[in-house]
Amino acid sequence: MIIIFLCRQSASSQVLQVKENTKDSLTKIYPKYKGGTSAIYKIIKDNLVYPQSAIDNRIGGEVIIQFEVDTSGNVDNIITLKGINEDIDKEAIRLIGLLNGWSPGKINGEKCSVVFNLPIYFYPDRKFKRKYLKEHK
Question: Which residue ranges in the chain fall short of pLDDT 50?
Fold first, then answer.
């Protein structure tokens, strides 16, 4: 998962981008979703409505969604980085839109927006899932 902090400096309109693997002296606090990662995947699982056209045509795989957790802890700027088809991509975006209620990220005590990339996997049936997982080890 790629995480980027976006901090608006009060004295200017510059945006500070700090990638997760950067070694620096900044104090970074990552946003946290209420209930953690397991709660994110539970919401996705419980609310997923698999598009009928994708079931009928046995379409599935990995969708990568990028979204921003803003300084209020809400999800914003949701886009598809890697899609499968229009119906599945729309469903992935809808699911991420349900994930409001984060504690915001901070850099050196200042609230910051943070960008996440999250994969969501779609499998129309168990046979498709087994084959997909075998091919993508």
Answer: 1-3, 7-18
CA angle 53, 56, 61 (to 5 degrees): 80
Query: The whole model's pTM is what?
Result: 0.81
Letter string b/e over residues 112-132, b meaning 16 or more CB atoms within 10 A of that residue's CB: bbbbbebebebbbeeebeeeb
Helices 36-47 and 86-96 sit at what angle, rounded to 10 degrees?
Answer: 130
Q: Which residues contact 98 (CB under 8 A, 6 or more apart)?
A: 43, 47
How far is the C-alpha of 71 from the C-alpha of 116, rounded, in Å? Answer: 14
Number of C-alpha atoms within 13 angstroms, CB side, residue 53?
8
Distance, CA of 128 to CA of 38 (rounded, Å): 24
What is the spatial distance between Cα 61 and Cα 85, in angstroms, rounded to a whole number? 10
**Pair 122, 88: CB distance under 8 Å:** yes
Domains, the chain, in order of start with CATH, read 3-135 (3.30.1150)
| pLDDT at position 126 | 94
What's the CA gap between 51 and 99, in Å, rounded? 20
H or E element, residue 66? strand 61-69
